[in-house]
Amino acid sequence: MSISRGLIYCLLAIAAVFYLLPLVVMVITSLKDLDEIRNGTILSLPQSLNFDAWGKAWSGACTGASCEGLKGYFWNSVSIVAPAVIVSTILGALNGYVLTKWKFRGSNLFFGMLLIGTMIPFQVILLPMARTLGFLGLSGSSSGLIMVHIIYGLAFTTLFFRNYYITVPNELVNAARIDGAGFWMIFWRIILPISTPILVVSVIWQFTQIWNDFLFGVVYSAGDNQPITVALNNLVNTSTGVKEYNVDMAAAIIAALPTLLVYIIAGKYFVRGLTAGAVKG
Amino acid sequence: MQALKIQNVEKSFGAVKVLKGINLEIEPGQFLILVGPSGCGKSTLLNMIAGLEDVTNGDIHIGDRNVTALDPKDRDIAMVFQSYALYPNMTVRQNISFGLDIAKMPKDEQKVVVDRVSKMLQIVPLLDRKPSALSGGQRQRVAMGRALARDPAIYLFDEPLSNLDAKLRVEMRGEIKELHQRMGTTIVYVTHDQIEAMTLADVIAVMKNGEVQQFGTPQEIYDNPSNQFIAGFMGSPAMNFVPCDLSDGANGYELLLESAGKSMPFPINQDIEGLKQYVGKKVILGIRPEQITQDSEDKSDNLVMACDVEMIEPTGPDTMVTIRLNGAKIVCRVHPTTMCSTDQALPLQFDMTKAVFFDPDTQMRIR
Questions:
Q1: Which residues in chain A (185-204) have CB-CB distances under 8 A to chain B?
Q2: In CATH terms, is domain A71-278 a member of 1.10.3720.10?
Q3: Do B87 and A175 touch (CB under 8 A)?
Q4: Cα separation of A190 and B292, whole Å?
Q5: Which of A67, A22, A69 is nearest to A232 (CA)?
Q6: What residue ranges do the domains of chain A occupy?
Q7: What is the tens place of the pLDDT at every residue in B11-41?
Q8: Strand partners, A66
């Protein structure tokens, strides 16, 4: 092993420590009680494994007026994320399939306009979307929020699937057409079974985006319908009583845990799927 | 009743006309080959027969049905693609039975068909493999199996052998021919390889620039090409073209040929009506390499001329010798035992009975 190789590993190790440090601080702080936090330094280890803060964050901490912890909001987020991810992924797959295998007059223009959708910042659509939701009678409901996430995510999922399917040879579709399969049959039996890598990419991307979203959540949902990110913000900003850093930390970790899990489980497919189709197209 | 009838079929992409009025008819059980250089429209025509491309103008009949406006699935066809297009997520068995499954054939009947087809193509041991675990030749067989399982009115082959290596290509070519002879199926086959066309076809349609240049049996097209393009396209090595002056000699028409600084009048031992109006003008002489051979006594009536040898290419059964006639490079097929070396004159025998003539401007055959 040469010196330069050693230097590279050294730098990588430093970078890893640098990025891991906040997580370490969060974990050890969440395991301390308030006395330990006040008397020790930020990096001093907890005396014992004390999960009280986690329990409180989950079911007893105050988020604004109510004091029932993040529990309810966690499930809110799950019930928003699950349909939004599933629907936007399925629609993205269908869009990509149509845009590559069943091209119509103007399909390239259509795709170009969809691409613009990936460049629109959240803030730009806040007001018009609020008016639209109001018009549809969906203001403040989680179905309204789900709809916003689906529509906003569609541009991205379509882009993913379109770029993946452009590498799938058209002859495959032609062969299936001659074998007697129609539009849906080809999609279900030929196209979808070979889409695993890009399905994983789309699911991870959409899950992360929607789970971590704060802006849409805080604007388009109200009261008990709010997602966990909004609840976390309320919990941390609640100004009554003593500042409980251990509970804040535990709550933040709880809010981040699902995305972390998704990456750990499906991460290797993510890179593979993102680079698949990067060569051609 | 024709198995396939193509009437005045045209295809345009925007302003570009890629097919300009194609007319073809084949009988049931015939093997039709569409051959031509790339971009001649042969694959487009095949896709239109399959229903994968729209017909701009004209009609296509399969059997007694007009299928011009029908979907591929309603045309009673099967197709083998250049890239094989096997479904990567399915096993070989599932690939072969996919079409049957969609047609809602009962599972036990499907099994009978898959067994029959896989035995015929000798792919029984591969049935439970995925396409990614197959070699090129095996994939080719599976693709053919998928077509055979359907038992359609017409089989369409789109350059099926062009992705195989040379040896395998010859092998599979033989198998396709055998299969056709055994099953008596109607086949339309697209290729750019004129040897495939000659060996496989009952009838060949030579295409260029979106038009059928000639439609006939392989031997007809080889012996009687209707223009210079076809003459040069079919046959390997290609037919030689010699520009020369035509004159009216004592024993009919004569050509003036020059090689190695010596000129010699060549009588044409054929009665060709059309040559009359070319007397005193230039014509293109078309002569195949096998019609210029080493000097031998048993054909003493042939013309003999000593020519300078420019290049020698032994192929094993024959040796290709390049000479120069009237400034054009000419390839001759001589027996390998003929002693010759470059920069030496070699007496060569010309068999003019099968020579053909073309107009130097229109490149059409003079008959």
A1: 185, 189-190, 193-194
A2: yes
A3: yes
A4: 56
A5: A69
A6: 2-50, 71-278
A7: 999 889 999 999 999 999 999 999 999 989 9
A8: A63
